[in-house]
Amino acid sequence: MDNNTLHIIGGGMAGSEAAWQAAHMGVRVVIHEMRPAVGTFAHRTGDLAEMVCSNSFRSDDDEQNAVGLLHWEMRAANGLIMQTADRHRLPAGGALAVDRDPFARSVTEALMAHPNVSVEYGEVDSLPESGQWIIATGPLTSQKLGQAIAAETGQGALAFFDAIAPIVHHDSIDMSRAWMQSRYDKGETEAERTAYLNCPMDKPTYEAFIDALLAADKTEFHEGETAGYFDGCLPIEVMAERGRETLRHGPMKPVGLTNPHMPDVKPWAVVQLRRDNALGTLYNIVGFQTKMKYGAQTEVLRMIPGLENARFARLGGIHRNTFLNSPTLLDDQMRLRARPNIRFAGQITGVEGYVESAAMGLLAGRMAAAEILGHPLATPPQDSAMGALIHHITGGAEAKTFQPMNVNFGLFRPVDGLKGGRRGRKDRYKAYTDRAKSAWNDWLANSRLDAEQPV
């Protein structure tokens, strides 16, 4: 097999970004994508970079938020995912949310148009023996390839269950009960300050909702499967099982909101929905991932004030999510220690979230391309967001308790001379992001290759 061509299995966020980065460095890339010939539970199309859960890339604040900092680093590296997200962004009160279908089509078109990129459709069901490869198959890695990975590592793939939130048709929402407002009116424009649709609950309604949620029929697991959920994406019924107040202090918290229909009455709980497309015809229920069966979902969700007559464009669901024990299996270049011609990227490495997955694709693509070109790159500095994340998954985390991780400031080395605690948080976060930007710019400057082409 041609060692000058980079083969990427999986055309999701990580695979798409890896292909873009390597192609712009002058390397030929082949993306192997099994969809649409072989589908998954969660995907609807054959587009690259299809968003299957939320349509949000979360906070875009690059001074006070670690994921916003990751946005900044990806933009600085001419990342395709961030370029495309910016073109298709929707109002989201300080977050970066995108119109998911045009976003995926644009990523697909950009990669198809690149002279160094080709796409081959069909399932890859075994580990390649030769050539340079990146496996970026995400949480829904096909069963055959998953078995091949497990056989090679000798440890098996770890697994947890990831749940999908429902999407509602806007014209079926009762706006005489709901209203538009971002928490604390956050955002620089009126569209940002009114980016979320809010459905209030009084205490009796909330208690009845919790009772129905706990009693609802749920999806059963297959024999031999266990439900090791990622805490950042818990189904609402699992949160309710942890305590009746859990949801009210989580996705249904009523803080920073005033109901204009009843301004003198503070809601006991609030369900928020976020626009899911540019037309504003679809809204997803924020934080409402669920494993309730479809019939139960419609009954329980229509108990939410304003959603009594809701029509659902998509109901919630649950799927198996596989990931590697990366601290044991991968080196700091994201190569499989036992088979260094194979790199892994994206959610299968144990990062969680669209942005983190794409960021690991960006690094894997650059590192693989540089190796092919004969100029290996240093691992990004640990003080950058990408460096902190790759350090965590390839050695910083405890292998025995390794679980999927979002980027967060807890992964960053402390800044000397700054006090801890909530009071010092703003200055501390700004120091983290200033240091990270400097470190990332230095790494980018030092990792430019003669073969690299302008974006």
From TrEMBL:
Its main location: cytoplasm. Pfam families: GIDA (PF01134). Gene3D superfamilies: FAD/NAD(P)-binding domain. Residues 6-374 form the MnmG N-terminal domain. Keywords: Cytoplasm, FAD, Flavoprotein, Methyltransferase, NAD, NADP, Transferase, tRNA processing. Belongs to the MnmG family. TrmFO subfamily. Catalyzes the folate-dependent formation of 5-methyl-uridine at position 54 (M-5-U54) in all tRNAs. NCBIfam families: gid_trmFO, PRK05335.1. This is Methylenetetrahydrofolate--tRNA-(uracil-5-)-methyltransferase TrmFO. It comes from Roseovarius pelagicus.
